[in-house]
Structure formats: C-alpha cells, structure tokens
From TrEMBL:
<dbReference type="InterPro" id="IPR003347">
    <property type="entry name" value="JmjC_dom"/>
</dbReference>
<feature type="domain" description="JmjC">
    <location>
        <begin position="93"/>
        <end position="251"/>
    </location>
</feature>
<dbReference type="Pfam" id="PF13621">
    <property type="entry name" value="Cupin_8"/>
</dbReference>
<dbReference type="InterPro" id="IPR041667">
    <property type="entry name" value="Cupin_8"/>
</dbReference>
<protein>
    <submittedName>
        <fullName>Cupin-like domain-containing protein</fullName>
    </submittedName>
</protein>
C-alpha cells in the first residue's frame, strides 16, 4: 500500500480495524536518514537505560541496566544479519519501549505519525533498538498502533481477534495488553492444541515501511537484522472509554500490589527491581 491519505486510512483501515502495510511515507522522514545506533549513542552517552533480556512476554521477566553508549556501541560492532530464528534461545538484550520523545524531545520532528494522530486523541511513542534476533512474543495491545521501521528489517506475525481462543490468553500481567501463553518456537501441542489452527499473516517490514496494528490484533515481532523502530500508540474516544479506563484501574491496583503481581512483565519475580511502563 503506497502513500495513504488520511481519509482512506480512516475509512478502509482504522475504523474497520484492518491492518495495513504503508510504504512511501516514512521513507521521507528525517529519522530514516539520520537515526543510527551511533546517532543515539551520541545523544546522551551516559544515560542509564533498561534492557529487556529475552522474550519477557512468554518467558521469565528479566532486565539489565546499561549505559546507553556501551549498549549501542556493542550493537554497532556486533552488527550482522541473521536469518529467521538462528539465534533462538540466547537472551537478546533489547532496548525496548524507550519513551523516546520524553527523553529526547528534539527528535519529535524527525517522524510524522499524522495518520494516527488525526484519528486519535492521545498518543504515546516508543523506540525499539536492538540486535538481530530480538523477539517480542504474541500479545494484543488494547490501543491502536503504527509501527514504523527506521533501519534494519523485522518480521511480524499477525493474528485476528477472532482467533483469540486458539491463542490461549495468559495470566501474566502486562500494562494495556493481553499476552499469549504460546510461543511458536517452544509450542507444546498437548497443552495448546488449538494453536495448530492459527494461520498468522506474516509480514517483513523493510526500512521506511509502517504497519498499522489495530487494537485487539495479536502480533509477534522478531528482528531479522540489527534494528531501529518506533511506534505510536493512540486512543480514540472509544479506546479511552472502553480500554484505557480499565487499563489504568488495573495498573493502579498492580502498582499497589493488589493485582497481577505473581507474574508480570514489569517486576522481576525474585527481586523488587522493576521498570516503569
Ligand atoms: O518491535 C518489537 O519488538 C515489538 C513492537 C510491538 O509489539 C508493538 O509495536 O506493539
């Protein structure tokens, strides 16, 4: 799908909540010309960042702290492409969910999410920087999303909301999301037999391409090369009323230790170290 006008995006994709790959728009962004691991490393080398270790959505929640420049310089030096799940099993360290414009407001003009901004009342933006082989397992975000690939390539698997019983929603808590119990690389057909019926749509996101992931759609994302992405989440009025109010309430209870504290993606099981969501 080449360049999309706002009215067409609204009518054909946003309102019916149908995913779409959008080409020829982000390619023009300054981010696609300027952003690299070195670029970020130089923005604030001493900044402490939290790295996810491995696939925290289906596996154990684990984090590590690092100095931004050390992590990103390591990625530049180690940078090589892997195909598919070659590196499966190693706990990749992933600078995920970086609140990019809160930390670096000067980068706001490097991207243009006006397609989503025109349809929504409230947005939040995250950057994702990591090596080849990072895996964000199957989950639903209860908020509309455009994921934009800035450099490197990612594979995305999408499953419609109608397949939810076969995705085995997990009890692990994640803010504003529902996680699946199933990870295809370690799928146990006896425990999760219905997953055999799931037919995901598989997409490879190239630099400069964007993917609209409507709220309620399951998705799983793996980087095929060292990768920089950014996404914009946005709520329209129905999202604020139907989903955000519930998510905020549950998150308040979670922070007080009254909900989902046995297993979550924001607190380690064995220590109190946590990351802000
Ligand atoms: O890029 C990734 O690793 C995950 C992105 C994602 O899950 C999202 O944008 O909702």
């Amino acid at each position: 799908m080449p360049r999309l006008e706002s009215a067409e995006f609204a009518a054909r994709y946003f309102r019916p909540r149908q995913p779409v790959v959008i080409t020829d728009m982000a390619t023009q962004w300054p981010a696609c010309q300027r952003w690299s691991f070195d670029f970020f490393a130089q923005l604030d080398p001493d900044r402490a960042v939290t790295l996810e270790k491995g696939n925290v959505l289906q596996d154990e929640t684990a984090f590590e702290s690092a100095r931004m420049a050390d992590y990103l310089t390591g990625l530049t030096q180690a940078g090589h492409a892997v195909s598919g799940a070659e590196d499966e099993g190693t706990a990749k360290r992933y600078l995920s969910m970086l609140r990019i414009f809160e930390q670096f407001p000067q980068l706001r003009a490097d991207v243009d999410f006006s397609l989503l901004e025109a349809m929504t009342l409230k947005q939040v933006y995250f950057a994702w920087l990591g090596p080849a082989g990072t895996l964000t397992g199957y989950h639903i975000d209860w908020i509309d999303n455009i994921l934009a690939q800035i450099s490197g390539r990612k594979r995305v698997w999408l499953v419609p909301p109608s397949a939810s019983p076969a995705m085995y929603p997990s009890s692990k808590y994640d803010y504003r999301s529902t996680l699946s119990e199933v990870e295809p690389n370690t799928w146990d057909a006896k425990r999760h037999p219905l997953f055999a019926t799931v037919r995901p749509v598989e997409i490879t996101l190239e630099p400069g391409q964007m993917l609209f992931i409507p709220r309620g759609w399951w998705h799983r994302v793996m980087s095929l090369t060292p990768s920089i992405s950014i996404n914009a989440f946005g709520h329209d009025l129905s999202g604020l009323l139907l989903y955000q109010s519930r998510a905020s309430l549950l998150h308040g209870l979670h922070q007080l230790g009254l909900y989902g504290r046995e297993d979550c993606t924001c607190h380690k099981k064995t220590a109190d170290s946590k990351r802000a969501k």
